[in-house]
C-alpha cells in the first residue's frame, strides 16, 4: 500500500517534502514544461549537460555528503578518488538536498526495495536518476548495511564506465540516491532483444568492463555481482557498472561472505563452512568470463537447476559452441579457471588478441568517420 501511495505521489508530482521548510503544507505541482521536453532539449545524457550545471548539482551533493568539505569541487579526472564520507541518515545543516529540488519523471526501473525515476534538478536542468528506497522495507529485509555500503563505495568512484552517485538525502520514510542517468537503460534488455551480441560488440563491452574492474580493484573494491542486469548503457552506447549493493571495500583483498548471483558465482565462493573459503578480487575475473560467454552465446555457461549449476561451476564444466571464434574461446577459457591465481589478469584481458582485434578495428572506423577526406 505504501509503495502504491508513493508511486501515485511521484506520478502526479503532488508531494509534501518534509526536508524543505518552504514546502511545508504545500504541494509540488508539475510545471508546463514537461520532463520529456527537457530531456529532448538536453540530449538525454549527463554527458551533454554543460559542466556548470554538473558542477552545480555535484557541489550541492558533496556538501550534503561531507560537511567538512563544503567547497568541494568536481574531480578533475576519472581516476581521482573523492573522499566524501557518505553517511546514511545524518545530514549536515549546509545546503540540504530535498525532493522539492527535483522534477520527477517516469519510472526507469523497479527493484526489490524501491524504484528508480528519471529526474531533473530544477535550478540547473541537470538530468539524473533518482533511486527511491523505503526505510521500512530495508529494515525488514535486513539490508541497511548493504545500502550504507553502496553509498559509501559508489560516492567515491570516478570512472567513465562506472555509474556515478552524486549524492543522497532522506526523509522520515525514504532514502533518495541521486545517480547518473544512463540513457539506454539496462544492458540485459539489449542482450535479450538481440539474444546474443556479435563478437565485435561483445569485445568492446568486455574491454570497457575490464577497464572499469581494473579501476575498482585499484581502489580495493570487489564488485561481487557482475551480471548483465547490473550493467547500464549511456546514451552513446558506453557501458556503466552499477548496483554496488554487494560490493565491498577490502584493502586486504580477502573475504569470506557468499553473495551475488548463482550463475555468476565463482567456485571459491561456493565452498562453505571451511576456513579455506577466502577469496579475492579475482572473483570478478570469473564473473567477467561468464559475462563474455553470455554476451556471445545468449545464456550463462553453467545454467541449469540450482544443484546442477553449483556442481558444474565447481568442476568448471561448460561447452563452448562451435560458432564462437578461437580468440573469444581462448579468453573465456583463460577467465573461467578454477584456480583464482591462474586466471588471466585484467591487464592481459585488455591486451588479449580478441579485444585488440575488435577494438582496434572500431577505433579505425571512428577515425575514418571523424576525418573524412
Automatic annotation (TrEMBL):
<dbReference type="InterPro" id="IPR008271">
    <property type="entry name" value="Ser/Thr_kinase_AS"/>
</dbReference>
<dbReference type="GO" id="GO:0032133">
    <property type="term" value="C:chromosome passenger complex"/>
</dbReference>
<feature type="cross-link" description="Glycyl lysine isopeptide (Lys-Gly) (interchain with G-Cter in SUMO2)">
    <location>
        <position position="227"/>
    </location>
</feature>
<feature type="active site" description="Proton acceptor">
    <location>
        <position position="225"/>
    </location>
</feature>
<feature type="domain" description="Protein kinase">
    <location>
        <begin position="102"/>
        <end position="355"/>
    </location>
</feature>
<feature type="binding site">
    <location>
        <position position="243"/>
    </location>
    <ligand>
        <name>ATP</name>
    </ligand>
</feature>
<dbReference type="GO" id="GO:1902115">
    <property type="term" value="P:regulation of organelle assembly"/>
</dbReference>
<dbReference type="GO" id="GO:0008608">
    <property type="term" value="P:attachment of spindle microtubules to kinetochore"/>
</dbReference>
<dbReference type="GO" id="GO:0045143">
    <property type="term" value="P:homologous chromosome segregation"/>
</dbReference>
<keyword id="KW-0808">Transferase</keyword>
<feature type="compositionally biased region" description="Low complexity">
    <location>
        <begin position="24"/>
        <end position="34"/>
    </location>
</feature>
<dbReference type="GO" id="GO:0005524">
    <property type="term" value="F:ATP binding"/>
</dbReference>
<comment type="similarity">
    <text>Belongs to the protein kinase superfamily. Ser/Thr protein kinase family. Aurora subfamily.</text>
</comment>
<dbReference type="GO" id="GO:0072479">
    <property type="term" value="P:response to mitotic cell cycle spindle assembly checkpoint signaling"/>
</dbReference>
<keyword id="KW-0418">Kinase</keyword>
<feature type="binding site">
    <location>
        <begin position="180"/>
        <end position="182"/>
    </location>
    <ligand>
        <name>ATP</name>
    </ligand>
</feature>
<dbReference type="InterPro" id="IPR000719">
    <property type="entry name" value="Prot_kinase_dom"/>
</dbReference>
<feature type="binding site">
    <location>
        <begin position="229"/>
        <end position="230"/>
    </location>
    <ligand>
        <name>ATP</name>
    </ligand>
</feature>
<protein>
    <recommendedName>
        <fullName>Aurora kinase</fullName>
        <ecNumber>2.7.11.1</ecNumber>
    </recommendedName>
</protein>
<dbReference type="InterPro" id="IPR017441">
    <property type="entry name" value="Protein_kinase_ATP_BS"/>
</dbReference>
<dbReference type="InterPro" id="IPR030616">
    <property type="entry name" value="Aur-like"/>
</dbReference>
<feature type="region of interest" description="Disordered">
    <location>
        <begin position="10"/>
        <end position="34"/>
    </location>
</feature>
<dbReference type="GO" id="GO:0051233">
    <property type="term" value="C:spindle midzone"/>
</dbReference>
<dbReference type="Pfam" id="PF00069">
    <property type="entry name" value="Pkinase"/>
</dbReference>
<keyword id="KW-0547">Nucleotide-binding</keyword>
<feature type="binding site">
    <location>
        <position position="112"/>
    </location>
    <ligand>
        <name>ATP</name>
    </ligand>
</feature>
<dbReference type="GO" id="GO:0032465">
    <property type="term" value="P:regulation of cytokinesis"/>
</dbReference>
<dbReference type="InterPro" id="IPR011009">
    <property type="entry name" value="Kinase-like_dom_sf"/>
</dbReference>
<feature type="binding site">
    <location>
        <position position="131"/>
    </location>
    <ligand>
        <name>ATP</name>
    </ligand>
</feature>
<dbReference type="GO" id="GO:0090266">
    <property type="term" value="P:regulation of mitotic cell cycle spindle assembly checkpoint"/>
</dbReference>
<keyword id="KW-0067">ATP-binding</keyword>
<dbReference type="GO" id="GO:0004674">
    <property type="term" value="F:protein serine/threonine kinase activity"/>
</dbReference>
<dbReference type="GO" id="GO:0000776">
    <property type="term" value="C:kinetochore"/>
</dbReference>
<dbReference type="GO" id="GO:0044779">
    <property type="term" value="P:meiotic spindle checkpoint signaling"/>
</dbReference>
<dbReference type="GO" id="GO:0000819">
    <property type="term" value="P:sister chromatid segregation"/>
</dbReference>
<keyword id="KW-0723">Serine/threonine-protein kinase</keyword>
Amino acid at each position: 500500500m505504501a509503495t502504491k501511495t508513493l508511486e501515485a505521489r511521484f506520478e502526479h508530482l503532488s508531494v509534501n517534502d518534509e526536508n524543505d521548510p518552504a514546502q511545508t503544507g504545500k504541494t509540488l505541482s508539475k510545471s508546463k514544461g514537461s520532463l520529456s521536453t527537457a530531456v529532448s532539449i538536453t540530449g538525454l545524457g549527463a554527458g551533454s549537460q554543460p559542466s556548470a550545471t554538473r558542477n552545480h548539482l555535484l557541489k550541492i551533493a558533496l556538501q550534503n555528503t561531507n560537511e567538512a568539505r563544503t567547497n568541494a569541487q568536481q574531480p578533475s579526472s576519472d581516476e581521482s578518488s573523492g573522499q566524501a564520507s557518505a553517511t546514511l541518515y545524518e545530514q549536515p545543516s549546509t545546503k540540504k538536498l530535498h525532493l522539492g529540488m527535483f522534477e520527477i519523471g517516469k519510472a526507469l526501473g523497479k527493484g526489490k526495495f524501491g524504484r528508480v525515476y528519471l529526474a531533473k534538478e530544477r535550478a540547473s536542468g541537470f538530468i539524473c536518476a533518482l533511486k527511491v528506497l523505503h526505510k521500512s522495507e530495508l529494515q525488514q529485509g535486513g539490508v541497511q548495511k548493504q545500502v550504507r555500503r553502496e553509498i559509501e563505495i559508489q560516492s567515491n568512484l570516478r570512472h567513465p564506465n562506472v555509474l556515478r552517485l552524486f549524492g543522497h538525502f532522506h526523509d522520515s520514510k525514504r532514502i533518495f540516491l541521486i545517480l547518473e542517468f544512463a540513457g539506454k537503460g539496462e544492458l540485459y534488455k539489449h542482450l535479450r532483444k538481440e539474444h546474443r551480441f556479435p563478437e565485435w560488440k561483445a569485445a568492446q563491452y568486455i574491454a570497457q568492463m575490464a577497464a572499469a574492474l581494473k579501476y575498482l580493484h585499484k581502489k580495493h573494491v570487489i564488485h561481487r555481482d557482475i551480471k548483465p542486469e547490473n550493467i547500464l548503457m549511456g546514451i552513446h552506447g558506453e557501458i556503466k557498472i552499477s548496483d554496488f549493493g554487494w560490493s565491498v571495500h577490502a584493502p586486504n583483498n580477502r573475504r569470506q561472505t557468499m553473495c551475488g548471483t548463482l550463475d555468476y558465482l565463482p567456485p571459491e565462493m561456493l565452498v562453505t563452512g571451511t576456513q579455506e573459503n577466502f577469496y579475492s578480487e579475482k572473483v570478478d575475473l570469473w564473473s567477467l568470463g561468464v559475462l563474455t560467454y553470455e554476451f556471445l552465446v545468449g545464456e550463462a555457461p553453467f545454467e541449469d537447476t540450482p544443484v546442477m549449476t553449483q556442481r558444474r561451476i565447481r568442476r568448471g564444466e561448460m561447452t563452448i559452441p562451435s560458432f564462437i571464434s578461437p580468440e573469444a574461446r581462448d579468453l573465456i577459457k583463460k577467465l573461467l579457471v578454477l584456480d583464482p591465481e591462474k586466471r588471466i589478469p585484467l591487464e592481459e584481458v585488455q591486451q588479449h588478441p580478441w579485444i585488440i582485434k575488435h577494438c582496434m578495428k572500431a577505433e579505425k572506423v571512428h577515425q575514418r568517420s571523424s576525418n573524412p577526406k
